[in-house]
Amino acid sequence: MVFDHVGLVVPDLVEAVDFYTAAFGFSVDSWEADTDVNPDAIGLPGEQVRLRGAILNGGNARLELHQYLHPTGTAPRRVSDQGIGHFAFSVADIHESHQYLAGLGVSWNTEPNFIADGDLAGRWWVYGKDPWGNVIELGQNPVT
Q1: Positive or negative CA dihedral for 10, 12, 15, 17?
Q2: What is the reported pTM?
Q3: Which of 4, 20, 42, 103 is most buried, judged by most C-beta within 10 A?
């Protein structure tokens, strides 16, 4: 098996595509027009399901974005809720990326954190939320 992609639900597909291409350098692989989806297949039995989507390519990973037209979703989950807690990006300069992404609407929990001891010593990391509340992590590995 090979990992294929992560899927995010967003309230506005075009805004999300614009954000993820500008913020992280994704390119658009494909757009999915408004589509009716089998509600049983995605775990929404009895619902009428209609969505639109896009597949973004990040080089070593793909991101699938969906905007549900019906039914619409609820507020974002907390990082401690079961399921996907966050997804992460490796960066060359965490401080520069932290500032750049804040300008694009990422709300950071803290300034970047440094790990001084242990197996991950020398690594920098920080958690925040994209403009729709999805939790993201930036990580900078030690320079060797």
Answers
A1: positive
A2: 0.87
A3: 20
